[in-house]
Write a structure and sequence with these properties.
Structural class: alpha/beta
Number of domains: 1
Number of helices: 11
Oligomer: single chain
Order of helices and strands: EHHEHHEHEHEEEHEHHEHHE
Strand content: 5-15%
CATH architecture: Alpha-Beta Barrel
Radius of gyration: 18 Å
Helix content: 40-55%
CATH class: Alpha Beta
Length: 273
Amino acid sequence: MSRPSGPWPGGAAGAIGLSFDNLGEAAEIELGALAPDAPLGGHFSATRAVPAILEALASRGLTATFFVEGLNAEAYPDLLAAIDAAGHEVAYHAWRHEQWGRLSAGAQAENLARGVAAFERLGLTVSGMRPPGGELGPGGIELLRDAGLSYCSPVGGGIGAPEGDFALLPFEWRNVDASCVLPELGPSREPAQFLADLEAELERLGREGGHMALVLHPFMLDWLGEDSLAAIFDRLREGAARGELWPARCRDVAEHVLAHREAFGDGASLSAP
């Protein structure tokens, strides 16, 4: 039986924006678990988890997007440079993991300008953002576009370019590893159940087509386990080898959507977390 050709590169039916959210101490400071003046630079997610992730990605020829807080440009500049040098994308996740939808439009603009400038000082160009909490809030798409970004990955469904020159690559909480352990995001799940649910989604994606944002967190690596992470990467590589799936950086997905707007249109829908 021949495989139907999809809208993605190589005729793949489904696209997967492979991504990792959060880095270092930023979110812990924002949540009050660490003092604002706490020493930075030794967090296990940066010193142990991300290097292991980078090694696992490299061994399989996969690329990913790392949505990191702007504070990390000051705390882990060498690591961000290493992520970029390895062919991955560094994208924005607020300055200190502030709940984006709760910020005023003015606060969003200041936050974004500070982060973009910090990344630019490292020679990194920011193309996209995933708002912590998932909501765009008062500033909406216009603020992000005005800052020079070309895409956003908020909570929602589908995929599209409703503004013509700006792409929306929504994520769903069920495809986020942290949703397994945070009750407010959904029913608790063990790693095995998360993998089973993910496999079912990948099977559907390869069969029916579409887009999925896979959202993993370096600080969740001990929960997920390196063997399970390797299994996820192997599955993505196999899907790509079969021509069914296109695992890619979010920036690449956005560029494809913007280059083929007629095929995607206003196919994205946003929802509250």
